[in-house]
Structures are given as C-alpha cells and as structure tokens.
Amino acid sequence: MNIGILGGGQLARMMAQAGIPMGLQFTFLDPKPDACAAALGRLLVADWDDAGALETLAECDRITCDFENVPAGVLERLAEIRPVRPGAAAFAAAQDRLAEKRLFESIGLEVAPFAPVASRIELLEALDRVGYPAVLKTRRMGYDGKGQYLLRQREDLEPAWAALGDDPLILEGWVPFDFECAITVARDAAGNLRCYPLTRTVHDNGMLALARCPAGVDAAMAAAAAEAARRLATHLEYVGCLTLELFAVGDRLLANEFAPRVHNSAHWTIEGTFCSQFENHLRAVCDLPLGDPAARGAALMVNWIGAIPEPVRLLGIDGLCWHNYGKSARPGRKVGHATLLGHDLDDLRARAGQLGPQLASYTASLLNGLMKVSV
Fold it and tell me: Number of helices and strands (H, E) in the chain?
C-alpha cells in the first residue's frame, strides 16, 4: 500500500520509519526540495495546490498530512478520489483559532475567555471583556509561538497591532496555569479509540522543549483529559492520531488547541509505548487494527532546537534514544530530539541527572523543574 503524505518534514519522516516495517511505501508532497522525509520515499516538490502534483499524489491508496496548515480545500479535492485521513473538516477547524475555540465550547470543553478582533476598536472592546494580561494572536498560520503578542498593559497595544494587525485576529485571556499537558488519541474509521497516557509538557518561547510521561497527575485529571480528547475525535469523526493541548489550573483542564496530525508532545511514544503514535496513525489510515498505546515505563523527550548537540557524551547515558532529522541547523528550527527511558519515574530522574549537565543552561533549568514534579 502506498501512502501519500502532504508535507515532507520530520513528522512524515517518522511516519515512514514506522510504516516501512509494515510493508508500506510513501510519496511526499512538499514545496521544499530539501524536505527531510525524502530519503524514505518519493518526493514531489510543488505547491500544495499544484494540479499535476495532486494528480500524482491521488494515485496513492491513502492520503494523510504531516502539516496542519495544508489548505482544507486541497484535502477536499483529494477526498473526491482517495480516502483522506483525517478529513478536511478537522483541518479547517484547527487552522482558525476562532473556529477552534468555538468547536471546543460546542462540545463542552472549557476554554480561556476569547473574542474575535478585526479592528483597533474591536481590540479595545475585547480587552474590556477579557482584561489584562491577554494574548493577541493571528487566527491562522500560528504554531510554535508564531503570530502572537502578549499584552500586559495599554502601552503594548500599538506595537502588537503593528506586528499583527494586517491579519484576522483573536484575543485570548492569559491563563495562569499550573502546568501544560497534552493527550493523544488514535481513532479508526469504525470509531474505535485508543488513548495514550497524558504527557506533561514544557515550552520555551512558544516551542515545545520537554515532554514527560508519566505526567504526575491524579487519576481524575488523567481521565478528564482522555475524555476530552475522545469527545473531540468522535465529534470530528476523526481517523488517525489527534493531540489536544491543555492548561491545568488547579483541578480544571482548559483546552488550548489541537493538532490534526501526529504531534511533537508524543514523540516519546516511539520507544516508550508498545505502539507509537506514528504506527497507530498509519494503522488507522490504512484500516488496520489499532495497537496498544500503553507506556512501557517512564519517558522524557527533549527537543533539539536550532542545532544538534554533540552526541558522544549523551549517547553514553543508558536508555537514551537519538533522533537526528537530517535538517540543516537554523535558529528556532526543530532539528531532532532525544528520548530518555526509565523503568519508572525514580529511575528516569536518576538518568536525567546525567542528561542535565550536557544541555544548554536554559534547557537544563527547565529539565530540573520538570523532573522535580511528583507523580
């Protein structure tokens, strides 16, 4: 079976790494000629809406995505010819922060206060309702901290408007969260669902820096997160892996955003579970039985952002799994990750103690805080 993937980045690369042992072949469509998944299949270099490239991609047996901003209209066109999983409706909702927030509310998920903004006057009116601090965001094309501006006081309004005011915007109330977490669920076309354990996440400048499982929450919060993800996937009639990102505030969970694709916060599942998010995504796309998402033990995922560190000392740590995406170094770019495995959280903490001194000081500080969290 040949799987067509819109996008040829590291997510497509890891999907292919999971799928090739299953006998799957891959064709990638990406506007960039240096797309890092190219070594694992056929690469079509073209714009998302290129007619010839889409015609070639439509020869594949199934079609999926590694990038949430592929135009929903392109997916609708392809779906007239081949199964596209997940479907265009999920992408349309995830691509517009306002539509996303309204979707969450419609299925009973709690969210931060929000308001659409299309003018300076609407921004002032929204701030009267939402209050300071708040985050002004572009409604579209925002990921990894892009397209947003924190408003702490009135003096922030003009620079924020100058930076973002050309786009449709949304104002969101600042959430004084205790921590962030993410939940990934796999759903097949028959409606069967398998939920991965809740992951605690730490971001730096809007980008995911660390992810750890177990998350260190009680059973009630873990169950509430899983139920929220199941409710969202079921409502969307979703097929594949979906990740819901959440803010934890006391015993409450507020939905922040969701990704209609495999997700960075669940990269630890490659080695840390019996069936990774990448394999389960492909199983769902290909109408194969879903695999076991249970954790094998404890896991910590560290993103390599900007450049890959020297691996020699780090690879001397037992339980460390290394992933180099084959991408050129560039500030703010995800170029790889490492997953540290332990038998349990105490064992993971001990191994992380060896990892910390090898990291940049800011990442080591984040790591220290994350690993002190009790179960």
Answer: 13, 17
Could you give the 3-state DSSP secondary structure of residue 74? Answer: helix
Place of tokens 């190219």: 38
Give pTM, 2 decimals: 0.94
Instruction: Return the SS3 of 305.
Output: strand
Distances (CA, A) of 224 to 46, 182, 197, 262: 42, 12, 12, 21
Count the Cβ atoms, other than its own, within 10 Å of residue 85.
25
Taking the C-alpha atoms of residue 322 and residue 302, their distance in angstroms, rounded to an integer, is 10
Neighbours of 373 (CB within 10 A): 16
User: 213-239: per-residue pLDDT in tens?
Assistant: 999 999 999 999 999 999 999 999 999
User: Cis ω on the peptide bond leading into residue 71 (within 30° of 0)?
Assistant: no
Average the pLDDT over 348-363 and give the result.
89
**pLDDT tens figures, 38-76:** 999 999 999 999 999 999 999 999 999 999 889 999 999
- Report the side by side order of strands in the sheet with 25-30: 42-45, 25-30, 2-6, 62-65
Decide: 115 and 171 in contact? Cβ < 8 Å.
yes
Q: Which two tokens stand for residue 244?
A: 């819901």
Apex 244 CA angle, 185 and 346, nearest 5: 75
- The span from the CA of 43 to the CA of 34, in Å, is 10
